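Page 47, continued from p. 46.
Same chain as before, 325 aa.
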Amino acid sequence: MLNKKILILFFAFITYGSFSQSTFPIYTDYLSDNVFLLHPSAAGIGNCAKLRLTHRQQWNGISEGPSLQTLSFHSRISEKAALGGVLFNDKNGFHAQKGIAGSYAYHLNFGRDDALNQLSFGMSFTYVINTIDQSSFTSVIPDPSNSQIIESTNYFNTDFSTAYHFMDTYAYFTVKNLLLSTKGLENSSYDSLNLRSYLLTLGYYFGKEKSVQFEPSVMLQMVERTSEFSVDVNLKAYKNIDNNKQIWAALSYRQNLEKNAVENLKQITPIVGFNYKRYMASYTYTNQLNQVVLDNSGFHQITLGMNMFCKKQRATGCPNVNSIF
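Result:
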């Protein structure tokens, strides 16, 4: 049992890396029409309010394998202002974190009704509860450090985000954990209270409506304290069946570019999904390409969504901005 616990913690560290130091792990959820999970400035970005539910499970053969659930919603409350919120539950072995985030975004449109030229700003305020469950820890030799209780800490943090959409081109930039409250963390096991990370997403959408449309994009991540750097290279394709049906697929490749890592993280993620009127569903599978892996079952995720309070589509803009309904 002890060896099993050590293995789980070791491979969880390899999988997450230091990027898990953000509020919740950053996966490829954003490719399932869920950019708001990463960038608060995406709140109310489109012509519909968006409700999204995700469930991600890693290492199906391991009972303590990491899992993550999120429930998010965001919507315009006026021509320029928008609100959003996220509930999340992230469990990794004996460690878990639950949290709630509230976001505010402000959009400035410099274009006409039939075009898109929009600058956006967003702030997100998050409350997180971290727990470590030691109740099942046992030892042949009594260990005074093993309290066999559930230890808990909590903290607040703030993210800042900006975005720019011009016709079919977009860019997002977000600073995660910009202002971190140290209350509740002073006596914790954190080596550093600097959890800041930086996300940059760039993308372009092209193609004719009656054929296949493509959306290549990249996302860059950087952790300030450790100077770790990773990149996602993505390609997403859409096919409209008729006015209210759409199928789509995406392929994402992620690599950690840290030079001194024992083994750099490499992942490939195919995603398939469909939209029917105001509803969407997608399935995500992530496969690690590292030589050392704990389980070959991969990571599985289901995303369900519903678009609400939809308005007329703009003449330009990627599907993240112009949802079908």
